[in-house]
Write a structure and sequence with these properties.
By secondary structure, the protein is an all-alpha fold. It is 84% helix and 0% strand. The radius of gyration is 22 Å and the shape is globular.
C-alpha cells in the first residue's frame, strides 16, 4: 500500500501539465503553512496566558470582521482574479491599474460606511444579539479596522492576479506574523487582558498598508504612457462581482456561523474550545486553499481558450495532489486529536476533540472533491454555484439553530461538516451531469477503477 501511494504521488508531481500550478502552489502552500503555524502559535499563547474566555472573544471579533469584510469587498476579491489578468493581456497594465483603482476606492468607501454603522450600533449588537454588553467595546474597536481588513483581503487577491506568487505568499504570512510579534511585545510590556485583540487588529492594519504599497509600486513599474485603456465603470465591476459576493457570504456562513452562534448561545470558553478545534482543522485545508488559489487563473485560461478537456485534466490532477498531501494530516487529527489538543492548548481544551473530529471529516470531503468552487466560478457557472452555496448556508443555519443550544461545540462542528459535504457533493454532481466528467478523486488500492 505504501509503495502504491509513493508511486501515485511520484507520477502526479512529475506531470508536466501541472508544473505551473504546482510551482505556484509551492509558494502559496509555504505561505499558508507558515501563516497557519504562526496563527496556531498565537492561539497557544493566548490560551496559555489569557485563557479560553479571551480566546473566545478574539474568535468572535475575528468572525465579525470577516463577515463585515465579506460585504464590503463586494465579491471583488474573486472578480479581480479575472479582471486584472484580462485587462493586462487584452489591453495594458494601465487598464488593469484603472480596474484596481476603482475597485480599491469602492471597497474603501463601503468599508468606511460599514465601519461607521457598526461603531454606532456596537452597543445594540453586543446586548441584543450576543447578550453580552461588555463586547460592545471590542465591536467598536473592530469597526475602526474594517477598512484595513477589507483592503488586506482585496490586495492579497490582486497580487495573485498580477502573478506575483511570492508576494501573495508574503501577504498570507504578514497578518499572522505581525499579530504574533505584537502579541509577544505587548504581553511583556502590559498586563491588560485586551492585548490579543490589539494584536489581531494591528496585524490587519499593517498588512493592508504594505499590500497597498507593493501594488502601487508594481503597477508604476509596468505602466507606460500611451497604454491602451478599456474603461470599465464601477457599476460594471459591481455587477460582475455580485454573484461572487453572495457566494463569499455563504462561505462565511458555513465556515464562521458556528463561532457567532456559539457566542450568542454559549459561553466564551466554549467559543474558545471551538476556535482551537477550528485552528487545528484548518491545517488540513491550507493545501486545498493553496492549490485552489493558483488553479483558478489556469482554469479560466484553459476554459476561455476552448480547451475544456485541459480544464478537467488539470482539475483532476490537482485534486489528486491535494488528496495525497492532506489525508495524512486528517488521519493524525482523527486518531490523535485529543493528544494534539492537550499538547498545544492544555487539558481543558481536550473537550473539543469531537468537534475537531467532525471538522476534520468535513475537510476530508473537501480534499477528495477538488476545486469545486473555483471550477464553477472560472467556467461561467458562478450563478449555479451561488445557488448551491445558498442552499448549503441555509442548511448550516438550521442545523446550528437546532444543535448548538443542546450540543454546543459539537453541534456547531456537525453543522459545518454537513454543510461542507452538501456543498461539495452537490457541485460534483452538477459537474458530472453537465459535462459527464468529475473533478473529484477517490483512490483505488486494489486495482484500477473501470
Amino acid at each position: 500500500m505504501i509503495r502504491e501511494i509513493r508511486q501515485k504521488y511520484g507520477n502526479l508531481v512529475s506531470d508536466q501539465k501541472l508544473s505551473e500550478i504546482l510551482t505556484g502552489s509551492a509558494w502559496a502552500l509555504s505561505g499558508r503553512l507558515i501563516a497557519s503555524g504562526l496563527t496556531l502559535l498565537s492561539s497557544v499563547i493566548i490560551a496559555r496566558l489569557y485563557g479560553a474566555d479571551i480566546m473566545g472573544i478574539v474568535a468572535v471579533l475575528d468572525s465579525l470582521l470577516l463577515l463585515a469584510a465579506s460585504f464590503t469587498v463586494l465579491g471583488t476579491s474573486t472578480s479581480v482574479l479575472r479582471l486584472v489578468p484580462e485587462h493586462t493581456v487584452k489591453y495594458s497594465p494601465t487598464s488593469a491599474f484603472r480596474v484596481y483603482s476603482k475597485t480599491k476606492y469602492l471597497v474603501a468607501g463601503m468599508s468606511l460606511l460599514t465601519g461607521t454603522l457598526l461603531f454606532l450600533t456596537s452597543d445594540i449588537i453586543a446586548t441584543s444579539v450576543f447578550h453580552k454588553s461588555y463586547l460592545s467595546f471590542y465591536f467598536a474597536l473592530g469597526a475602526a479596522c474594517i477598512v484595513f481588513r477589507s483592503l488586506m483581503d482585496l490586495n492579497t487577491e490582486v497580487v495573485l492576479g498580477l502573478k506575483l506568487v511570492r508576494v501573495f505568499a508574503l501577504l498570507l504570512i504578514l497578518p499572522a506574523g505581525f499579530s504574533l510579534l505584537i502579541l509577544l511585545l505587548l504581553s511583556v510590556l502590559f498586563s491588560t487582558r485586551d492585548v490579543p485583540v490589539y494584536a489581531l487588529l494591528s496585524g490587519f492594519g499593517l498588512t493592508a498598508i504594505i499590500g497597498l504599497t507593493i501594488i502601487e509600486y508594481v503597477f508604476k513599474k509596468r505602466t507606460r504612457p500611451g497604454d491602451k485603456v478599456e474603461e470599465i465603470s464601477t457599476w460594471e465591476i459591481v455587477c460582475i462581482s455580485s454573484p461572487m459576493l453572495i457566494t463569499t457570504i455563504m462561505v462565511f456562513v458555513i465556515g464562521q456561523l458556528g463561532v457567532v452562534m456559539l457566542g450568542m448561545f454559549r459561553s466564551e470558553a466554549e467559543v474558545g474550545y471551538y476556535a482551537a478545534a477550528g485552528k487545528l482543522a484548518t491545517l488540513a485545508s491550507f493545501v486545498v486553499t493553496a492549490v485552489n488559489s493558483i488553479s483558478a487563473p489556469k482554469f479560466s485560461e484553459l476554459y476561455h481558450s476552448g480547451n475544456l478537456d485541459g480544464v478537467f485534466d488539470v482539475a483532476r490532477k490537482a485534486t489528486k495532489f491535494v488528496f495525497w498531501t492532506t489525508v495524512p494530516i486528517v488521519l493524525v487529527l482523527l486518531i490523535f486529536g485529543k493528544a494534539v489538543l492537550l499538547l498545544f492548548f492544555g487539558q481543558e481544551f481536550t473537550a473539543a476533540y469531537w468537534a475537531l473530529f467532525f471538522l476534520a471529516v468535513g475537510q476530508f470531503v473537501n480534499s477528495i472533491s477538488g476545486s469545486t468552487g473555483y471550477f464553477m466560478n472560472m467556467t461561467g457557472h458562478h450563478k449555479t454555484f451561488r445557488n448551491i452555496m445558498i442552499a448549503a448556508a441555509i442548511l448550516n443555519i438550521f442545523v446550528n439553530l437546532g444543535l448548538i443550544p443542546r450540543l454546543g461545540i459539537h453541534g456547531a462542528a456537525l453543522a459545518a461538516m454537513f454543510s461542507l459535504t452538501f456543498w461539495n457533493v452537490s457541485t460534483l454532481l452538477y459537474i458530472k451531469i453537465k459535462y459527464g466528467h468529475s473533478i473529484g478523486y477517490v483512490p483505488s488500492f486494489w486495482g484500477r477503477r473501470p
